[in-house]
Amino acid sequence: MHTFEQYKKFIPLEVMSVLHALVAAGGQGWLVGGSARDLLLGKIPSDWDIEVYGLEAKKLEPLLRKLGQCDYVGKQFGVYKLWIAIEGKAKLNLEIDIALPRTEIKAGHGHVGFTVQSDPFIMPEQASLRRDFTINAMMFDAIEDAWLDLHNGQMDLHAKLLRHVSSAFVEDPLRPLRAMQLAARFGLKLDSQTAALCAQMLSEASSLPTSRIWQEWKKWALAPYPSFGLNAFHDMGWLPNYSELNALIDCPQDKKWHPEGDVWTHTKLVLDAMASICDREQSSADERLILMLAALVHDLGKPQTTRVDAKGHVSCVDHEHVGVEIARDFLFSLGCPKKIVAVVMPLVAQHVLHFAQSPEPANVRHLAHRLYPANIHLWEMLTEADAAGCPPLPASRPALIWRELALANDCLMFSVKPIVTGKMLLIHAVSPSPRMGELLNQAYLAQMNGYFTDEASAHRWLEKTLLQERV
Length: 471
What we know:
The protein is built from 23 helices and 13 strands. The protein is globular, with a radius of gyration of 28 Å. The chain is about 50% helix and about 10% strand. By secondary structure, the chain is α+β, with helices and mostly antiparallel strands. The chain starts with a helix and ends with a helix. About 40% of the residues are buried. Helix 15 packs antiparallel against helix 16, helix 18 packs across helix 20 and helix 19 (about 375-390) packs antiparallel against helix 20. The longest helix has 19 residues, at about 265-280.
């Protein structure tokens, strides 16, 4: 096990000050959950979680209020949120979750059906049994430079194995979804016994609130190893709960273009490629979320459109358009926000357009319009990932020339801005009316087709068009 010296560069002074204050008050604070796990991986934890032993709530709460702003946010679970000022950074606070050890007893149906008892004097051996996975059950005392690994979490982490802590694992039906996103975040394989326990919870999947389902899928989408998450889902038998994904398994593809196998295999390869492309492009979290979801659902239309003829030739005509409604319903079932779905849908609908049309300025401008509120920048990344999902065919960027033309035509990130406006039509004596709206649409189409490119040529086009109408 490493020493504190190797971890201290990752632990903020503010966290250490809280830990020292707990010891001074007669208690002991352990970094737990993701905080301990990420430190062991040599990463700065995104969340700071401290479990406090030896201090009752009536002593702990006043102490925390002296250290910073403190709210008792989880009365059922004995959880406090502490916001403590970050040294040298005015108006910035570090958020720390602080909890008492607790036991949980299943008392009802679903994810929240538990009776919880906080007790600062129970032993870590008992308190840790409520943890989901061994990699999340490790504890680190940064004051004493001591690790407590009661369930061999370090061994599992090094073995890339996701394993449950105890038989109580089956009491929370959210845990299979957590398994999915953790496998994707850390490149883990699901332990076979853990997979069997996950399968037992399938009947309770419908009890999960959509908001919690979306939180787990969002974490999956932002993870570096998305195929590991889908593999875990498959291994635990939860795919039937997502019929749109389950239908991809054994859905055939033309071997000439898809030597990798069925649509399920292709989708996983596309997802991993998309994650790598997002890393290369340094995509924002919002962009990455959109692109990973687009990669996940881009071929959901194939099971309904795939046909195999008498000679064994496989086709999936119009799968990109058939898949739009399927993808939309699927994403909504995950709790995906409408604004994200709205961007993903045109990416799905247009993801094979570069095979059907030639890369010409007019076609590029039309594509930029059809992709809104997405854009050609995102679309080209999806086409690259799609092409990378067909090994051993070489990876390529089949729509790169479309991207270059979009950049040259100022429509890479946005659709084409109309040159002809209502104000310009008034100059040509076209008064507000239904005809004005029709003429604006006609002008925009003409602009995208390249009949004019600036205001001067737009005026000439309008004069000619209006003259022809009067003749």
